[in-house]
């Protein structure tokens, strides 16, 4: 089976071209094997690029643990790059079918290849039951964090300047945004899985800690459900943009610094979130099934 390794701001996946290859019979198991960083190709998961009856292509995204996610903002930019660079389409505006619906993407090229993509991420989902979360309120804005057992790093709240409240947003997949003074002081590997599996989130949740530098600039770190610490999260950055406006901490246009690179976000007047960022092809190879 041929594959291509790609990343968007360091959020890396193994991509399989199902225009040329049959869809794998057990993608959940294959994702765990091929994305293993020691015994496989390595990545945050696996993405299938499939034919679609309603769009240029269809994206199926599987996390490192084999679970299938509705949407990935960094992966969809890479899918758009792949279908253009590899001749599936010659259009510089195209559509990709996802579990979130059909999304529109605008391509930026250099030397005939895509290097940046602007994605219409759609309207944010703010109703608590649709995110979903059982936290109180029609909208979960500045609501106290769930209490979780913390055996290690008992002083991290103080060291990071944590605001112990969260704001929840869905961009087709669920996100919780938490603010602090210094994101580098948050023990993400410890607190991330505890919040991901908190009972208040029936479909688990992605966790983002955010440090605000000014109305138009933030730094964020992410724990992704099913994959753990990742270098970037496009749907998460979109949720951070929305949460910043809802809580009055940042503007509707922000530059988000993530460990793997920068993303530009806008929550526009049409109530849709637009994300712009890089897409990079690293290498291709063959996986022995």
Structure description:
This protein has five helices and 18 strands. The chain is of the alpha+beta class and 289 residues long. The chain has an 18-stranded mixed β-sheet that branches.
In short:
This protein has 289 residues and is α+β, with helices and mostly antiparallel strands.
Unreliable residue stretches: none
Structural class label = alpha+beta
State the end-to-end CA separation: 7 Å
Q: Total helix count?
A: 5
The residue fraction in helices comes out at 10-25%
Share of residues in strands:
35-45%
CATH homologous superfamily descriptor of the largest domain? Diaminopimelate Epimerase, Chain A, domain 1
Question: Number of domains in the coordinates?
Answer: 2
The number of strands is 18
CATH classification, class level of the largest domain? Alpha Beta
Q: Architecture of the largest domain in CATH?
A: Roll
Radius of gyration: 18 Å
Shape descriptor: globular
Output the CATH topology of the largest domain.
Answer: Diaminopimelate Epimerase, Chain A, domain 1
- What profile does the largest beta sheet have? 18 strands, mixed
> Quick check: average pLDDT?
96
Query: What string, H for helix and E for strand, traces the elements in order?
Result: EEHEEEHEEEEHEEHEEEHEEEE
């Amino acid at each position: 089976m041929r594959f291509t390794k790609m990343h968007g701001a360091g959020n890396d996946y193994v991509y399989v071209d199902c225009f040329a290859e049959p869809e794998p019979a057990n993608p959940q198991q294959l994702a765990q094997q091929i994305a293993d960083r020691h015994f496989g190709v390595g990545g945050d998961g696996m993405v299938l690029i499939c034919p679609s009856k309603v769009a240029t292509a269809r994206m199926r995204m599987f996390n490192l643990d084999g679970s299938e996610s509705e949407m990935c903002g960094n992966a969809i930019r890479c899918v758009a790059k792949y279908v253009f660079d590899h001749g599936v389409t010659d259009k510089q505006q195209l559509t990709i079918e996802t579990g979130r619906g059909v999304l529109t993407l605008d391509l930026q090229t250099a030397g005939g290849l895509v290097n940046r993509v602007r994605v219409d991420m759609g309207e944010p989902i703010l109703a608590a039951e649709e995110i979903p979360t059982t936290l109180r309120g029609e909208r979960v804005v500045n609501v106290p964090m769930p209490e979780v057992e913390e055996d290690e790093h008992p002083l991290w709240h103080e060291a990071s300047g944590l605001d112990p409240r969260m704001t929840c947003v869905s961009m087709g997949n669920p996100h919780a945004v938490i603010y602090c003074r210094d994101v580098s002081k948050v023990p993400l590997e410890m607190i991330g899985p505890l919040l991901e599996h908190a009972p208040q989130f029936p479909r688990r949740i992605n966790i983002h800690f955010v440090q605000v530098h000014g109305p138009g600039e933030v730094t964020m770190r992410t724990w992704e459900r099913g994959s753990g610490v990742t270098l970037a999260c496009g749907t998460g950055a979109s949720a951070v943009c929305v949460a910043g406006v809802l809580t009055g901490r940042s503007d509707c246009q922000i530059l988000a610094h993530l460990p793997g690179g920068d993303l530009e976000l806008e929550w526009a007047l049409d109530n849709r979130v637009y994300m712009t960022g890089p897409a990079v092809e690293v290498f291709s190879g063959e996986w022995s099934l």
